[in-house]
Design goal:
heterodimer; A: 161 residues; alpha+beta; Alpha-D-Glucose-1,6-Bisphosphate, Chain A, domain 4; 7 strands; 34% strand; disordered C terminus; B: alpha+beta; Arc Repressor Mutant, subunit A; three-stranded antiparallel sheet; 5 helices; 3 strands; 63% helix
């Protein structure tokens, strides 16, 4: 079974060089704070700018929680990351899904395209997730709907620290 | 490029959510769903088509009927989740670049 990649685009009012830099090196300053997978409140996000480079969050108490790694670092046009967070919002070294960011100039602005692919690799953990959810479908689905309607920041399965 | 309905938007509609919840509890046909809901059969079919497009349910022929079930591996839900996750992250990034300016 394959599953269609997620594609999202957004235009930002800075040139590609700047967009790439802000996206990668200043991630902590914009990445939604609710998106934390550790009990140690997030103090920084680190991304080592080389293939194989460590990518993850660092807590206020120094806990290092990996999210994935850098697969290709090609400023200003492309950043290829491995997203290794499973359906339980835990780092899984055996899970590698590709997250590709491309930065394309549009006049003075940049079109940022995000593609998250290899989603079928979530297979095993997706099964686990479905299992967990079987008891509480209505609540979970309501939570998804609330999320979609912007009523809450983050649904229950997502650790909010 | 397919321009499918966003999974979370698909679930934001109360009728579609009711259909999805019923299908999640027990795989069933359009007829069974329509009998259980204050909605016409064609309307149920239309909602199922949108849920299918959003990769939240799949269907399977069983004799002359089509039985709907949720994606057995939960991938539709994960996709729904991540789709919204990345949407929110990119919106946050856009806002940040606006603040940073120049």
């Amino acid at each position: 079974m394959t599953i269609a990649p997620i594609r999202r685009t957004i235009e930002v009012a800075v040139p590609p060089e700047r967009a790439f830099e802000l996206f990668s090196m200043r991630m902590h300053d914009w990445w939604p704070i609710g998106h934390s997978i550790s009990d140690d409140p997030r103090a920084a996000i680190e991304m080592a700018p080389d293939p194989g480079g460590w990518w993850g969050q660092i807590g206020q108490h120094g806990t290092r929680t990996q999210w994935g790694k850098v697969l290709a670092w090609n400023p200003p046009g492309q950043l290829l990351l491995a997203w290794q967070i499973d359906a339980d919002w835990k780092f899984d070294p055996g899970l590698v899904t590709e997250l590709e960011l491309t930065f394309t100039p549009v006049g003075m602005n940049t079109l940022v395209t995000l593609e998250h692919r290899d989603l079928e690799r979530f297979g095993e953990s997706a099964e686990k997730m479905a299992e967990q959810l079987r008891n509480g479908w209505p609540g979970v689905v309501q939570a998804y709907a609330d999320l979609a309607n912007g009523r809450i920041e983050c649904a229950p399965a997502c650790s909010t620290a | 490029m397919t321009n499918s309905l966003q999974p979370l938007e698909a679930l934001a509609d109360p009728t579609r959510r009711a259909i999805f919840e019923r299908v999640a509890r027990k795989p069933q046909s359009v007829g069974e769903l329509a009998a259980d809901l204050p909605v016409s059969r064609p309307a149920v079919s239309q909602h199922l088509r949108m849920l299918k497009e959003a990769q939240l349910v799949i269907d399977q022929a069983q004799g002359t009927r089509r039985i709907y079930r949720i994606d057995p591996r939960g991938l539709g839900l994960i996709r729904a989740w991540l789709d919204d996750y990345w949407g929110e992250a990119l919106r946050a990034f856009q806002k940040f670049t606006d603040q940073e300016g120049i």
